[in-house]
Amino acid sequence: MKQPTVLGLAALLAGCATATPPPQRVAPAPIPYAATGLERVIGQNAAGLVALFGQPDADVREGPARKLQFASGICVLDAYLYPEGSAEPRVTYLDAREPDGSAIDRASCVAALTRREGGK
After folding, report:
1. According to the 3-state scheme, what is the secondary structure of 25-76?
2. Residue 58 contacts residue 49 (beta carbons within 8 Å)
3. Residue 22 counted as domain residue
């Protein structure tokens, strides 16, 4: 008789236990993408970027898209150029980071790169 009582008690206790949900992972807040301070870059073609920053540190092409990367000791700027129709590819998006990968304001990076050696 003791066995059914122990099993009944175990069943009761099991019903009282609540499962703890795993902790939710929270993504870091995205850095707002404002065009302020980027007027010299957004809409530029590759020649305009070279005139502004000097020769790119990387030039990657994938289909009609192109990424030009400019780097300094302060930041790394990736400029993404896409064609619209048959027009020459122009910068439609920028991404910036510190050399260690940390986030940095895009406009601050553009300003720093215009002052790097090789930029104008």
Report:
1. CCCCCCCCCCCCCCCCCCCCCHHHHHHHHCCCCEEEEECCEEEEEEECCCCE
2. no
3. no
Contacts of 2 (CB under 8 A, 6+ apart): none
Q: Is residue 96 part of a domain?
A: yes
- Mean predicted lDDT score pLDDT of the chain: 82
Judge whether 38 and 52 are in contact, CB under 8 Å: no
Q: Is residue 119 included in any domain, yes or no?
A: yes
**Residue-range definition of the domain harbouring residue 51:** 37-120
Question: What's the domain count of the chain?
Answer: 1
42, 35 Cβ separation under 8 angstroms: yes
* 17-47 confidence digits (pLDDT tens): 566 676 677 665 555 555 667 999 999 999 9
| Token code pair at residue 5 | 């009582």
Q: Is 47 exposed, middle or buried (0-12, 13-18, 19+ CB in 10 A)?
A: exposed
What 8-state DSSP symbol labels residue 71? E
